[in-house]
Amino acid sequence: DRKLLDEGLSSAANIASDSDGDEWLDGGIWERSIGTLGDLKQRILELLSKAVNKETIDQMRPYRKKNNWLTSDALDGGSELSAELSGVLSELSLLLSSLSRVLPYSAFVRISRGLGEELDTFLVERVACAHRFNIQAGMQFCRDIDALSRVMSSPAAPAAFKAPSQRYLPKARECGKILSCVVDSTASQPACADSGFGSGSGSKISLSLEEWGPTVMNTAADERETALVLNKLGIKHISVKQVRQLVNNRSDFAQSTPPSSE
Q1: Half-sphere exposure (Cβ direction) of 160: Cα atoms closer than 13 Å
Q2: What is the secondary structure of 33-68 as a DSSP string?
Q3: pLDDT value of position 114
Q4: CA 178, 180, 142, 66 torsion: positive or negative?
Q5: 250: which strand partners?
Q6: Are residues 217 and 257 in contact, defined by beta-carbon separation less than 8 angstroms?
Q7: In the structure, what pLDDT confidence band is assigned to residue 71 with cuts at 50, 70 and 90?
């Protein structure tokens, strides 16, 4: 896969340098040639996108298998980021930097956004919805997502995204909000709360799990009421089923919440 990725980058660079001279090809056989070249470019970009996504997701395997979310390291907030993520960040930064140098703007936008969507889905389905968390572990997850977002919006990709890092990984960010939400209204945010997602508007849920959890977890409740509650919480990208799974994954709230019938 790495060889395919390297070859794809080389081919993309050649196509990018050759594309500047396409304008003089007009009429007759050249139109057919241009169409063939366009199809070839499309195919190469598709293969490159698949290789980039697979390479990155494969590197995320240790993070997916991380099973110490509830251990003392996570509880104490001993490290800023999960150790399983450190290598991925440097590789991802290098990859985006390489792509930005060899690809035309439109191709870089397409591949980078596709990678962001792939990562977002992976983090929701294979990490957030697949492990048990408490509020401190939820804050650890927030810090990890914030670090990934900063890499995706790093100087290597300013022209492609033109957006603050908060725009990246929207589904995973909403998972972080739920996993780091306080259990009851009398509880205070843990000391590590300010290091995840910043302190801007919408960076965390203002209501406690006890205040909104029962309504969302009630499968017999009116769907419109549930949707209104989630909208008020700023949860717009993940499904109700995923929200319920995340709440069930909160080990510090499980005893207070009856399991969902789904």
Answers
A1: 27
A2: HHHHHHHHHHHHHHHHHHHHHHHHHHHTHHHHT---
A3: 93
A4: negative
A5: 133
A6: yes
A7: confident
